[in-house]
Design a protein that fits this description.
The complex is a heterodimer of chains A (about 350) and B (about 80). A five-stranded parallel sheet of chain A has the order 4-5-6-7-8, with helices on one face. In chain A, strand 5 (about 100-105), helix 3 and strand 6 (about 130) form a beta-alpha-beta unit. By secondary structure, chain A is of the alpha/beta class. Chain A has helices at about 35-45, 65-85, 110-120, 160-165, 175-180, 230-235, 235-245, 250-275, 280-290, 325-339, and strands spanning about 1-5, 20-25, 30, 50, 100-105, 130, 150, 170-175, 185, 205-210. Chain A has ten helices and ten strands. The chains are: A alpha/beta (about 350), B mainly beta (about 80). Chains A and B meet through strand 1, strand 2, helix 1, helix 4 and strand 8 of A and strand 1, strand 2, strand 3, strand 4 and strand 5 of B. Strand 8 (about 170-175) of chain A pairs parallel with strand 4 (about 40-45) of chain B.
């Protein structure tokens, strides 16, 4: 699924304009015009293209700005769809990417004209909806109810995912998975909550902080019921050691484990929906687990360029210096030894 | 969904609740892979999920879709 911006994106210093969306590339901030976007997505040929939307990241805006973004996005989407029709040959056998129309994170009234255009004129040309705020899902026009819904929101954890499933979201993007992995947290929750874990007096944590020294002699897997590669082949003690040694393998194993936990979580959601017990199961989940993921205590992997941008002059470096002048480092260490 | 352009992807709603909320569905891409929904797609940097190489991604995880950002691929020339 190809979209214009990362998820979650870095806020750009200049706002979007009719000329294009502000983006953050490897060579700096730039503006992406709809013509370039359509051209590049046609060349790249993904399975799904998410339409270009005038979403103001990192700023709050008023009603007028919301209405302007509705109008601008409407023009961009109409342009994108026209270009798609021009480019695809009419014989079947040659398929183009599916097109997901964006829905803006503004109140439904502010983008009512845009939603009306989607529902009346463009509904046969779009294959799905991508949105940036879950509360808008209930305001989707009835004519577009049959389309798959891609959420580009940032759920804080599994409880928020369950609430969004209740609203009617189909496909999720979950930044908290990698955030937990980077923080050295092994996720540990199951849906529906297994019988032996219900009715506890204290709430269970959603994950385990693998930096803690308490794990240094533990021969338990990361999660008792997980069948992932990390849990089948390694102990907690090994992963705790890898994290403290700042080995890449630590995050490799944690990421494999966390992805497996989320896979099983969604399989459980689908099973629960099929068995029509989702409401009860979701309530039990909310009452069994803590509401937030554990707080990071250790050091994450190196902060990458696409995760932040500097705000002003004189900012401290995000990553600790890895090397220093040998004599300075030696004398610093010997001072520590003396203590 | 009634013309050629839409053959690339099909979405079947298997069930939805009466008050317009939660829904079960299946999304089929290219008439090949089917993703049952609700599900997630992994967030990636140009096709790379953080910390996991492509071989491990296919062998050790069940990830069946990913989100790619065009701004990560700019400039293309």
């Amino acid at each position: 699924m190809l979209g214009p911006r990362r998820h979650p994106p870095v806020a750009c210093p200049f706002p979007n304009s009719d000329a294009g969306l502000s983006i953050y590339t490897v060579v700096g901030f730039s503006s992406l015009s709809v013509a370039d976007y359509v051209d590049m997505t046609q060349k790249m040929r993904p399975d799904v293209v998410i339409g270009l939307a005038d979403v103001a990241y990192g700023t709050t805006s008023g009603r007028r700005r919301h209405e302007k973004s509705g109008l601008r996005t409407c023009n961009w989407i109409k342009y994108s769809i026209d270009k798609r029709k021009d480019s695809l040959p009419t014989e079947s056998g040659r398929h183009g990417p599916a097109f997901f129309a964006p829905v803006l994170p503004v109140p439904a009234e502010a983008q009512s004209q845009y939603l009306k255009t989607l529902a009346d004129e463009l509904k046969d040309d779009i294959n799905g909806l991508a949105f940036y705020d879950s509360s808008i899902v209930t305001d989707f026009p009835p004519a577009l109810q049959h389309l798959p819904r891609l959420s580009l929101t940032e759920p804080s954890g599994p409880q928020q995912v369950l609430r969004d499933v209740t609203l009617g979201v189909d496909i999720f993007t979950l930044p908290f998975i990698s955030a937990a992995t980077d923080a050295g947290i092994a996720l540990d929750f199951a849906f529906p909550v297994p019988a032996n874990e219900q009715n506890t007096t204290t709430r269970r944590p959603l994950g385990t902080d693998m930096w803690l020294v308490i794990h240094s002699t533990s021969l338990q897997p990361l999660s008792a019921r997980c069948a992932c590669y990390a849990c089948s082949n390694h102990h907690r003690a090994y992963i705790q050691h890898l994290l403290n040694a700042k080995e890449m393998l630590a995050w490799v194993l944690l990421q494999i484990h966390n992805l497996q936990i989320i896979d099983c979580f969604f399989a459980g959601i689908r099973e629960s929906l099929a068995g029509k017990t989702f409401g009860n199961d979701a309530e039990k989940f909310e009452s069994t687990y803590e509401p937030q993921l554990p707080v990071m205590t250790g050091q994450g992997p190196r902060i990458r360029g696409y995760q932040y941008s500097s705000r002003g002059p004189g900012e401290p470096k995000r990553n600790a210096k890895a090397f220093g002048i040998l004599s300075n480092v030696m004398s610093a260490n010997s001072k520590l030894d003396d203590c | 969904m009634n013309n050629d352009i839409n053959d690339h992807i099909t979405f079947h709603l298997q069930s939805s609740s009466q008050d317009g909320g939660m829904r079960l569905g299946s999304l089929t891409v290219h008439n090949q892979q089917t993703i049952k929904t609700p599900h997630y797609v992994a967030i990636s940097s140009r096709g790379c999920v953080p910390h996991v190489t492509q071989d491990n991604l296919y062998r050790r995880t069940g990830v069946c879709g990913m989100h790619v950002a065009l701004e990560d691929c700019e400039p293309l020339r």
